[in-house]
TrEMBL record:
The keyword Signal applies. Gene3D superfamilies: 1.50.10.10. It is an enzyme of class 3 (hydrolase). It comes from Protea cynaroides. This is Endoglucanase.
C-alpha cells in the first residue's frame, strides 16, 4: 500500500494559497480540466437509448430501443444504457442521475458553457424515469432488457434483437432500494431545473414524493423481488435502508419540508445513520448521505444532523494518509483502490465527496476532525486532484483513462456500439453472434466513445487494453456522473502555469 503525500500532525497547509499548491508541478491546467469536463458530459450521448435528437454530437450512434415497453403497453423509450451492453438497469441509472444533478447543484456555477449540456444529460434520464414512475399506479418500471440473453450477443444497440423484457416493482413485489434512489434522482433534478424550468421542476418533485412514499410504505429489496434478472448485475448488496435515508435526505434538500426532517430524525438510526462505511457507489449511499446532511449542520446548526458531520469526518479521515483513522488502500502510483472490477467508479465518487465536503467545510470555516488532528478543505482538494490527475494521465502508465483525452488513451473499449462499425458506415444488420468477430479483433474501436472513463488499472497500476478485459476497459455512466462535478471544480480554478 502506497500513500499519497504524508501530512503533518495538524495537517494544515498554511504556506501557500491552496490553488498554488495544487498546481505545483501539475501536468494539467484549468483549460485541460475544462476539456475533460466537456468530454465527460459528451460520453452520455454515447449511452443514449431512444430517438436521438438533431443536435446529437456523437454522430456514430443511431436510434435504438424504439419499441421498449410496447409489448407491455407502456412507453419506456429513452434513458441510458448503463455500460457496454444494451440493457437499461434502473438502479445505476437513477444513481447516475442523482450524481449528475448533485454535480450541477454544487459545481454548476463552474461549468460555464457546459451547464446546458449537463442539464441535457440529466433531463435525458429524468424524462425516462418519469415514464417509469408514472405509467402505472403503485408501480415502478426498473429494467428493460433480459441481461442474460443480452450478454450472449455482441451487437449494436441499433441492431439488438434480444428480448426487451420489462421488469417492475410493485406493492406485492417491492423494491425500496431502486424506488428510493429514483426518488432521490427526481428530487435532486428538481433543484437543477427550479429556475430554468419551474413547471418541469415541480413535476419532478411531485413524482419524487409519490415514489418515495411507495418506497417507504412497501419495504423490501428489489434483489429479492427480481433476483434472477438484477443479480448478479446490479444486486442490492447493501440492502435498501441506505437508499431510504438517502432518498429522504434529497427530498428534504429539495423541499426543506419539515416532514422529511422529521422522517430523518425518526428513522436515521434504524436506516444506518450511525454506521461508518468507507465507500460510496451505486449500491451503497451511506457515506454520501453523511456528507449531504452535514451541510445542514454546518450551515444551519441543525443539531440533529451533528451525527452526520461526525460520520462524514470519519469517512474523510479514513482516506487521508497520516491520520489515526487512515485505512484506505492506494496503488504505488497513488490511486485509491477499492476493488478489481471497475475500480474507478469508487475513485470518481470519492473525489466528488472530497470536493463537496471541502466546499461545505470552507464555506463555514470548519475542518474535519481526525482524532487529535484536523484536516482542512485544502487537504481534501489536494487529494481529490491527485485522483483526477491520475485518471487523466498523470500515472505510471502515462495513459489517460478517459477515452479521447490526451495523447494516449485506451483503444479497445469494452462497448458494443464503440467496437462495432457504426450503422452509418455499415447499414447492414449485424446479427447477435456475428458481432463477436469485432469483440475479439485486435484492431482499435472504430468509433471513439469520447469522455468515457473506464474501469481502470489494478492495485499495482497495471492496465491491459484488451476488449475482453471488461473489468478494466468497460465504461459506465456511474463512473462519469460524479466526475462531472469534480472536473467542473478544477476547471474553475485560475491557473497560469502547466509544468
Amino acid at each position: 500500500m502506497a500513500s499519497t503525500a504524508q501530512v503533518s500532525p495538524t495537517l494544515h497547509l498554511l504556506c501557500l494559497p491552496f490553488w498554488m499548491l495544487l498546481f505545483y508541478c501539475s501536468a494539467f491546467d484549468s483549460h485541460d480540466y475544462a476539456n475533460a469536463l466537456d468530454k465527460s458530459i459528451l460520453f452520455f450521448e454515447g449511452q443514449r437509448s431512444g430517438n436521438l435528437p438533431s443536435d446529437q454530437r456523437l454522430t456514430w450512434r443511431g436510434d435504438s430501443g424504439l419499441s421498449d415497453g410496447s409489448s407491455y403497453h407502456v412507453d419506456l423509450v429513452g434513458g441510458y444504457y448503463d455500460a457496454g451492453d444494451n440493457v437499461k438497469f434502473g438502479l445505476p441509472m437513477a444513481f447516475t442521475t442523482t450524481m449528475l444533478a448533485w454535480s450541477v447543484i454544487e459545481f454548476g456555477s463552474s461549468m460555464k458553457d457546459q451547464i446546458h449540456n449537463a442539464q441535457t444529460a440529466i433531463r435525458w434520464s429524468t424524462d425516462y424515469l418519469l415514464k417509469a414512475s408514472t405509467t402505472t399506479p403503485a408501480t415502478l418500471y426498473v429494467q428493460v432488457g433480459e441481461p442474460n440473453m443480452d450478454h450472449r450477443c455482441w451487437e449494436r444497440p441499433e441492431d439488438m434483437d434480444t428480448p426487451r423484457n420489462v421488469y417492475r416493482v410493485s406493492t406485492q413485489n417491492p423494491g425500496s432500494d431502486v424506488a428510493a434512489e429514483t426518488a432521490a434522482a427526481l428530487a435532486a433534478a428538481s433543484i437543477v431545473f427550479k429556475d430554468s424550468d419551474p413547471s418541469y421542476s415541480n413535476k419532478l418533485f411531485k413524482t419524487a414524493t409519490e415514489v418515495f412514499e411507495f418506497a417507504d410504505r412497501y419495504r423490501g429489496s428489489y434483489s429479492d423481488s427480481l433476483n434472477s434478472v438484477v443479480c448478479p448485475f446490479y444486486c442490492s448488496y447493501s440492502g435498501y435502508h441506505d437508499e431510504l435515508l438517502w432518498g429522504a435526505s434529497w427530498m428534504y434538500r429539495a423541499s426543506q419540508n419539515s416532514s422529511y426532517l422529521a422522517y430523518i430524525q425518526s428513522n436515521g438510526l434504524t436506516l444506518g445513520a450511525d454506521e461508518d462505511v468507507y465507500s460510496f457507489s451505486w449500491d451503497d449511499k451511506r457515506a454520501g448521505t453523511k456528507v449531504l446532511l452535514s451541510k445542514d449542520f454546518l450551515e444551519k446548526s441543525v443539531e440533529e444532523f451533528q451525527l452526520y458531520k461526525v460520520h462524514a469526518d470519519n469517512y474523510i479521515c479514513s482516506l487521508i494518509p497520516g491520520t489515526s483513522s487512515f485505512q484506505a488502500q492506494y496503488t504505488p502510483g497513488g490511486l485509491l483502490y477499492k476493488g478489481s472490477e471497475s475500480n474507478l467508479q469508487y475513485v470518481t465518487s470519492t473525489a466528488f465527496l472530497l470536493l463537496t465536503y471541502a466546499k461545505y467545510l470552507s464555506s463555514n470555516g470548519e475542518v474535519a476532525s481526525c482524532g487529535t488532528s484536523t484536516v482542512t478543505a485544502a487537504n481534501l482538494i489536494s487529494l481529490a486532484k491527485k485522483q483526477m490527475d491520475y485518471i487523466l494521465g498523470q500515472n505510471p502508465t502515462k495513459m489517460s483513462y478517459m477515452v479521447g483525452f490526451g495523447d494516449r488513451y485506451p483503444q479497445h473499449v469494452h462497448h458494443r456500439g464503440s467496437s462495432l462499425p457504426s450503422v452509418h458506415a455499415h447499414p447492414q444488420h449485424i446479427a447477435c453472434k456475428d458481432g463477436f468477430q469485432y469483440l475479439y479483433a485486435s484492431s482499435s474501436n472504430p468509433n471513439i466513445l469520447d469522455g468515457a472513463v473506464l474501469g481502470g488499472p489494478d492495485n499495482k497500476d497495471s492496465f491491459s487494453d484488451d476488449r475482453n478485459n471488461y473489468q478494466q476497459v468497460e465504461p459506465a455512466t456511474y463512473i462519469n456522473a460524479p466526475l462531472v462535478g469534480a472536473l467542473a471544480f478544477f476547471a474553475a480554478i485560475p491557473t497560469t502555469h502547466s509544468g
